[in-house]
Design brief:
binds magnesium ion, NAD(P)-bd_dom_sf, binds nicotinamide-adenine-dinucleotide, 7 strands, Rossmann fold, globular
């Protein structure tokens, strides 16, 4: 197409001007081209692009709201641009109201998917912001509040999502409970139970209910953590659930492969979300949150969305049973 040729030669010139001769010749060979609808630009420096510690001291009651965080997390509200990579897909995302789940929900909608989100009733205001963003992308938003610690609710969540979306082909098991405690003696049986119910049992209940509905080409994505590989000393129960999620994904991938359904996980490092000021970190540690990564800052939810898109999309067709890290240079898969 004439427009494409014009676009490429313009990019070649800009590439040469911006990045110097060597990169310019790569551009000329067509090795790097801007996605349709995007503009040529110098990539920002990932080290300095986002907020860095120290952060203002802050605490919220569980489960926390993104709207009350300072600075506000970046979920890609103003930055994520889709290019039809999930056109017509139907996704359920748990914990879709805030943080990483919200970033995935925004990205999925802008890539052309209809999206159902689950969250707790206390998070309705965050959830409504997400639903409005999904609708603004021209896609259907389905809000399904409820507590994932109930097997009955998890089963109904899947049925309701599939009924409202008229099918289901992406399931993102992302919700989690994280309560920091200084020692094993401080972890109550109730806390241990809540953490395993939310992070492990709910994933099992949801995916067991979803499995018979998922046709070939569908994708399952779970959110693990750097804690699956490098546990924080104050997150004993949480880290154990993340290890369980990581290995559950690898085993389930083996079962689902012959059905044409891929199963993968993302393992984030420290990410600026309401999980942390609502009990996930001791308040005094939060002001230095992310300082221990080689990038010396926490990640923002928006920085993870492209991984969730890739793993859901039909581009990653030979990728299953894998865990993808995004931890600013810290340990992980
Ligand atoms: P977040 O607080 O924005 O999201 C977690 C969500 O879990 C909440 O929004 C809430 O809706 C949901 N949830 C918790 N308990 C629930 C329950 N009983 N019923 C229904 N929903 C419930 O925080 P986030 O950091 O975006 O967390 C998303 C995922 O990322 C989690 O699996 C978390 O373990 C993982 N993760 C986060 C970090 C980090 O530093 N923020 C690091 C590694 C992994
Ligand atoms: Mg939330």
């Amino acid at each position: 197409m004439a427009d494409d040729t014009t676009g490429q030669s313009r990019r070649t010139i800009l590439g040469g001007m911006t990045f110097g001769g060597m990169t310019g010749s790569l551009f000329a060979a067509g090795a790097a081209q801007a996605a349709p609808g995007t503009q040529d630009q110098v990539p920002p420096n990932p080290v300095t692009e986002y907020p860095r510690p120290p952060f203002a001291r802050q605490q919220q009651p569980w489960p926390g709201l993104a709207s009350l965080m300072n600075p506000p997390p970046d979920h890609g509200e103003t930055s994520y641009r889709g290019s039809g990579r999930l056109l017509g897909r139907k996704a359920l995302i748990t914990g879709g109201d805030s943080g990483i789940g919200r970033a995935a929900a925004i990205a999925y909608a802008r890539e052309g998917a209809d999206v159902a989100i689950n969250y707790l009733p206390a998070e309705e205001s965050d959830a409504q912001e997400v639903a409005a963003l999904i609708r603004a992308a021209g896609r259907k938003a389905v809000a399904l509040p409820g507590d994932l610690r109930s097997e009955e609710f998890c089963t109904k969540l899947v049925t309701d999502a599939a009924a409202n979306l008229d099918g289901l082909d992406i399931v993102v098991s992302n919700a989690a409970r994280q309560v920091w405690q200084p020692s094993i003696e401080k972890i109550s049986t109730q806390q241990f139970d809540d953490t395993f119910k939310t992070n492990v049992y709910a994933m099992f209940w949801i995916l067991r209910a979803a499995a018979p509905l998922l046709k070939p080409g569908s994708a399952i994505i779970a959110t693990a953590s750097v804690n699956a590989y490098e546990p924080s000393r104050g997150l004993l129960d949480y880290a154990a659930t993340k290890g369980a999620i990581m290995i559950f994904v690898k085993a389930l991938a083996k079962q689902m492969a012959e059905r044409g359904v891929r199963v993968n996980a993302v393992a984030p490092g420290p990410i600026w979300t309401p999980l942390q000021p609502s009990g996930g970190q001791p308040p005094e540690a939060l002001s230095e949150f992310g300082a221990d990564t080689p990038m010396q800052r926490p990640g923002q939810p928006a920085e993870l969305a492209p991984l969730y898109v890739l793993l859901a999309s039909h581009e990653a067709t030979f990728t299953t049973g894998q865990v993808f890290g995004a931890a600013g240079g810290r340990g992980g898969p």
